[in-house]
């Protein structure tokens, strides 16, 4: 990956542009780039103080507002065109008790991940439909580790070292993958790919995509 003072300055320039875009827009959000943008396929540069504390705070605020407005449950800096290893996560949980139980989806309070990494814990994998704010209009089933070991730091530099499970583990994997230049489609069961139209909404509304697997003829972990 690129490195050096000139690259760090280039990253800072992009970050400042995002902050300006997010603070000057009527809704307080920045544009989310779509599949095909080079930042989504780059290995993100580790965050190592390229921004001042005030600039980092402003950037994270724009990312948080943009994620909420989309709406989404996670947003990585490359999704705003900034290939730096930063991500924000927040999930209010499911309003359906059945979905919450089957998907192990508990509320995830807002948090920031800096230079995160994950490794699967155990062999359990579960497949559910996922979408992405950078791949608008489509969704597909992705089999992911049920539990992961997450490491990195938060925005204040405090160490993150924990086991994350259920739907929160899925969000961690999805957003951390963005920092490695990986989209969820790279890991998806492509026969499950569905537009977010009438059929797609039906498939995604299942607690588990059992009917979708049967109708579209794909294996479901």
Automatic annotation (TrEMBL):
The active site is at residue 175. Gene3D superfamilies: Peptide deformylase (3.90.45.10). Its EC number is 3.5.1.88. Keywords: Hydrolase, Iron, Metal-binding, Protein biosynthesis. GO terms for biological process: translation. It is an enzyme of class 3 (hydrolase). Fe cation binds at residues 132, 174, 178. Its cofactor is Fe(2+). GO terms for molecular function: metal ion binding; peptide deformylase activity. InterPro entries: Peptide_deformylase (IPR023635), Peptide_deformylase_sf (IPR036821). It comes from the Bacteria. Removes the formyl group from the N-terminal Met of newly synthesized proteins. Requires at least a dipeptide for an efficient rate of reaction. N-terminal L-methionine is a prerequisite for activity but the enzyme has broad specificity at other positions. This is Peptide deformylase. The lineage of its organism: Bacteria, Bacillati, Actinomycetota, Actinomycetes, Micrococcales.
